[in-house]
Amino acid sequence: MKERGPWPPDGPATRQPNKMKPSVPEHIASLVPYPPGKPIEELEREYGITDSIKLASNENPLGPSPKAMQAVTGALSRLHRYPDGSGYYLRKRLSGKYALPFDGIVLGNGSNEIIELAIRAFLVPDDEVIMPAPSFLVYKLAVQTMGGKAIHIPLKRFAIDLEKTAGAVTPRTKMIFVNNPNNPTGTLISKRDFDVFLDRIPPEIVVVLDEAYIEFARDPDTPNGFDYIDRQGPFVIVLRTFSKAYGLAGLRIGFGAMNPFLADYLHRVRQPFNTGTLAQIAALAALDDEDFLHRTQRVVWDGLQYLYREVERLRLNYLPTEANFFLIEVPGPAKWFYEAMLRQGVIVRAMSSYGMDNHIRINAGLPEENERFIRTLSDTLVQFRASL
């Protein structure tokens, strides 16, 4: 077969700009993509730094579960086979561990995908979806992708306002998102308040309870989403992920637990092989790695106590959390602090995209990372005050 030459045939000089554009719906054209962070290696190259630490993405400071790594290594010879499209073994293990209906479990490419599947399954253009603000940015993006309308309910003292959320329901409301603990504030709703809230919601509405950080919550009054999936209305979809507490963020594996009636519709709109072989095998092994989960929790909780104490010493305000991250109020633009700390090799998250222009968010790291963060923050505060 003859090889094709370069395109266009006469070289780049003959290429004419294509003035025709595809017809793109307004709700797609106006989308603002989720702002991902750059790889650490690229940031180090751009800023001429080495040995940086990243406390910006709420990742597990201990790395991945050792049992998950061992299971992945043992499965590498099977990569020529397609994944188990049903996720049978992982769903079976989840069902047994959490007493969930097997047919009510849907696996996803991270819990993000379950958000998208639910929206694709139940929304049509112009439907309304209620969500807290600020909260996880993907809620709004996924709703807009389907031509739906995101209804934002401002937080009340940094916490989700369930009373106003229930009061915002209209005949066009199809879905409500509740993030518990809420990202980026780390605040919780109580079981009592959630029960009262559900009693006010019409039975035809789907409530998506996002529990991505639930393993780090210590408040005994925290609701467990799995207790609500048998409700006949409003229906509750519970989101869980292996990215945080189990350290599998790079494999992208999560799941949704719900009434099998709802799961049937999500399976209709998901891709046949939406989760990979290694992701399923790693998650299955991680579920049995209780020692690793407990070590992760202890490192995070001890780290948070140290960070609280040191931030108080620096006379900065912060928001106590029930997640593995927390907010710190800085005395200037968050983007300035992000840039200044980045130049010193410490990567944090500026919360400007969440409408919090004077807050940074960090996750608890290893003890030496937490100590370096405090030293860098202290130096950055001196730099900022000297620039005034």
From TrEMBL:
<dbReference type="InterPro" id="IPR015421">
    <property type="entry name" value="PyrdxlP-dep_Trfase_major"/>
</dbReference>
<dbReference type="GO" id="GO:0000105">
    <property type="term" value="P:L-histidine biosynthetic process"/>
</dbReference>
<keyword id="KW-0368">Histidine biosynthesis</keyword>
<feature type="region of interest" description="Disordered">
    <location>
        <begin position="1"/>
        <end position="24"/>
    </location>
</feature>
<dbReference type="Pfam" id="PF00155">
    <property type="entry name" value="Aminotran_1_2"/>
</dbReference>
<dbReference type="InterPro" id="IPR005861">
    <property type="entry name" value="HisP_aminotrans"/>
</dbReference>
<feature type="modified residue" description="N6-(pyridoxal phosphate)lysine">
    <location>
        <position position="244"/>
    </location>
</feature>
<comment type="pathway">
    <text>Amino-acid biosynthesis; L-histidine biosynthesis; L-histidine from 5-phospho-alpha-D-ribose 1-diphosphate: step 7/9.</text>
</comment>
<dbReference type="InterPro" id="IPR015422">
    <property type="entry name" value="PyrdxlP-dep_Trfase_small"/>
</dbReference>
<feature type="domain" description="Aminotransferase class I/classII large">
    <location>
        <begin position="51"/>
        <end position="375"/>
    </location>
</feature>
<keyword id="KW-0032">Aminotransferase</keyword>
<dbReference type="GO" id="GO:0030170">
    <property type="term" value="F:pyridoxal phosphate binding"/>
</dbReference>
<dbReference type="GO" id="GO:0004400">
    <property type="term" value="F:histidinol-phosphate transaminase activity"/>
</dbReference>
<dbReference type="InterPro" id="IPR050106">
    <property type="entry name" value="HistidinolP_aminotransfase"/>
</dbReference>
<keyword id="KW-0028">Amino-acid biosynthesis</keyword>
<keyword id="KW-0808">Transferase</keyword>
<comment type="subunit">
    <text>Homodimer.</text>
</comment>
<protein>
    <recommendedName>
        <fullName>Histidinol-phosphate aminotransferase</fullName>
        <ecNumber>2.6.1.9</ecNumber>
    </recommendedName>
</protein>
<keyword id="KW-0663">Pyridoxal phosphate</keyword>
<dbReference type="InterPro" id="IPR004839">
    <property type="entry name" value="Aminotransferase_I/II_large"/>
</dbReference>
<comment type="similarity">
    <text>Belongs to the class-II pyridoxal-phosphate-dependent aminotransferase family. Histidinol-phosphate aminotransferase subfamily.</text>
</comment>
<dbReference type="InterPro" id="IPR001917">
    <property type="entry name" value="Aminotrans_II_pyridoxalP_BS"/>
</dbReference>
<dbReference type="InterPro" id="IPR015424">
    <property type="entry name" value="PyrdxlP-dep_Trfase"/>
</dbReference>
<feature type="compositionally biased region" description="Pro residues">
    <location>
        <begin position="1"/>
        <end position="11"/>
    </location>
</feature>
